[in-house]
Design goal:
435 residues; mainly beta; 10% helix
Length: 435
C-alpha cells in the first residue's frame, strides 16, 4: 500500500475518534513511511522464486513450539563463513538502460533482475528492463499498458510478472516480450490493494474498501492458466474492521494478517479496540489461526524462504490511538505452528530500539540495512550501514558499506549470491560474489 493511502486511511480513522482523543499525527506519518518501505522491500522478495540459500548456510528444519530454530546438514560452517561475509566486496555492474529514476519496482526471478516503472522528473514511467545475471546484460521490456497502475508485483510460472494496484492487472510474458491485461473482479473495484502472492497455481490478491462506511476486506484468486478470477474473501470476526493487510505464500498455504481497529464512545470520552487476526488458506478454505499471535504489532511485509517466515520489526498497532513510538525486534515464524523465535537486535539499532528500515531474507541469511537522508534529493534515502544475521550461529556480522552511500532508486534485492543495489542515477552495484 502506498504512503498516501496508508496516511489517508489512518487519518480517516482519526477523524472519527471521540473529541477527547487526539490522533498522534507525527507518529502516524512516520508509521506510514516506514511501513511502506517494509512492504516494498520484503514482499517483493518474498513472492519471487528464491530457490536456494546463499552464503552457504545449512537448510532450516521446522521447529516445534517453544523450541529454538534448529538447522541440519553437514558440519556447521566455521569462522570462514563469517569471514567471507565480512570480506565481501562491492563491484559495479552494467548500468540500467532506463536511466535515472526513483521508486521503480525491483524484483528477482531467480536469475534475472526486473526494473519496472518509477518516477523521472516528476513523471511516472511505464517502461522496464531486465538484467540477466548470467550474461551480465540488460534488455528492454515492452512498455506497460496505460490501463495498468504500477505498484504490487508477483512472479508466476515461467517467469511471468503479475502487476496491479488499480482495477486492471497486467501480466508480462518474457518469452514474447508482451503484456496482457485482465480486469479485477467488480468486488475489488476502488480497493486499497496489497502486494499479491503466488502459490504456484494461483495469484492471491487482497484489498480493503475505501468507499464503504466500515472498511471491508476482499480477497480474490486469479488462475493464470485459464485466466479466471474467483472471490475467496474470508470471514472476519464481527466488528474487526480491517485497516491493513499482509500476506505470505508458504509451500502449502497462504497466511493472511488482518490488522483491525475501531473506536467506541464512552461516558469518559472514548475507547480504542484493536488487534490482529491471522488466517490460513489451504485447499480453497480459510481457517483462523490467530492463536497467541502478538496483537499490537504491525506485520509489515512477511517474507518466506527455506521453511521459515521472516517477520520484520513491527511498530505499535492500535489503529489511530495515541501510542509511544516503539518497535518490536524481527522474528522468525514457523509456517506450520506460527511459533515465533526472536532475532537478536542488530548492531544497526539506534536510539530507543529504533530498528533499521530494510530487512531481506533469502532462506539462508538475513540482511538489515540503514537508510539515511531521505528527502527531495533522495526520496528513497541513501544506503547506510549493513549487517548480516546467520541463523545457525545466532550472530550478526557487519558488512562493508557501499561506496559513497549511494542514493537508492528502490530497496535492495538479496539473491542467492549477492546483494543488488540500483541507485537513483541508474548504477547497478553488487555486494558478494557473482553468478
Amino acid at each position: 500500500m502506498t504512503d498516501d493511502r496508508q496516511v489517508r486511511a489512518l487519518f480517516t480513522r482519526a477523524a472519527e475518534l471521540p473529541d477527547t482523543i487526539q490522533p498522534p499525527v507525527p507518529h502516524l506519518v512516520e508509521t506510514a513511511r516506514r511501513t511502506r518501505r517494509l512492504y516494498v522491500a520484503l514482499s517483493l522478495l518474498g513472492v519471487a522464486a528464491i530457490t536456494a540459500a546463499g552464503f552457504t548456510i545449512p537448510a532450516v528444519v521446522r521447529k516445534p513450539p517453544g523450541q529454538s530454530i534448529a538447522f541440519r546438514g553437514g558440519p556447521r560452517p566455521g569462522p570462514a563463513t563469517a569471514g567471507q561475509l565480512a570480506r565481501a566486496h562491492w563491484s559495479a555492474l552494467p548500468r540500467s538502460p532506463l536511466g535515472p529514476r526513483t521508486a521503480p519496482i525491483l524484483a528477482w526471478t531467480g536469475n534475472e533482475l526486473i526494473e519496472l516503472g518509477g518516477i523521472r522528473n516528476g513523471v511516472t514511467q511505464r517502461n522496464g528492463a531486465v538484467f540477466d545475471a548470467t550474461s551480465q546484460q540488460w534488455r528492454r521490456m515492452a512498455e506497460v499498458p496505460s490501463s495498468v497502475r504500477l505498484n504490487g508485483a508477483v512472479f508466476t510460472s515461467k517467469g511471468r510478472l503479475f502487476v496491479t494496484s488499480g482495477n486492471v492487472a497486467g501480466l508480462y510474458d518474457p518469452r514474447h516480450n508482451r503484456w496482457t491485461t485482465t480486469a479485477l473482479p467488480t468486488q475489488m473495484a476502488d480497493h486499497q490493494l496489497f502486494t499479491p502472492v503466488w502459490t504456484g497455481h494461483i495469484v492471491v490478491l487482497a484489498g480493503i474498501s475505501e468507499l464503504t462506511k466500515s472498511p471491508m476486506l476482499a480477497v480474490a484468486a486469479y488462475n493464470v492458466a485459464d485466466k479466471t478470477w474467483r472471490m475467496i474473501t474470508p470471514h472476519l470476526p464481527r466488528r474487526h474492521e480491517p485497516g491493513a493487510v499482509a500476506m505470505v505464500a508458504t509451500r502449502h498455504k497462504v497466511i493472511l494478517w488482518s490488522m483491525w481497529a475501531r473506536s467506541a464512545r464512552t461516558k469518559n470520552g472514548g475507547t480504542i479496540y484493536s488487534g490482529v487476526d491471522v488466517l490460513a488458506l489451504r485447499d480453497g478454505k480459510w481457517t483462523p489461526i490467530t492463536g497467541n499471535w502478538p496483537q499490537h504489532r504491525i506485520v509489515g511485509g512477511a517474507a518466506f524462504a527455506n521453511l521459515q517466515i521472516l517477520i520484520p520489526p513491527g511498530q505499535f498497532w492500535c489503529g489511530p490511538c495515541p501510542a509511544p513510538f516503539s518497535e518490536s525486534p524481527a522474528k522468525f515464524a514457523d509456517p506450520g505452528s506460527l511459533a515465533l523465535t526472536t532475532i537478536p537486535n542488530s548492531p544497526l539499532v539506534t536510539g530507543p530500539l529504533i530498528q533499521p528500515p530494510i530487512w531481506l531474507w533469502n532462506g539462508s541469511a538475513v540482511v538489515a540495512a540503514d537508510e539515511t537522508g531521505d528527502g527531495a534529493a533522495a526520496p528513497e534515502g541513501h544506503l547506510g550501514r549493513l549487517a548480516a544475521y546467520l541463523p545457525w550461529s545466532h550472530r550478526w556480522h557487519p558488512l562493508p558499506n557501499a561506496p559513497g552511500k549511494p542514493s537508492l532508486a528502490a530497496p535492495p534485492i538479496l539473491t542467492r549470491q549477492q546483494l543488488l543495489v540500483l541507485t537513483q542515477s541508474g548504477r547497478l552495484m553488487a555486494l558478494g560474489k557473482r553468478g
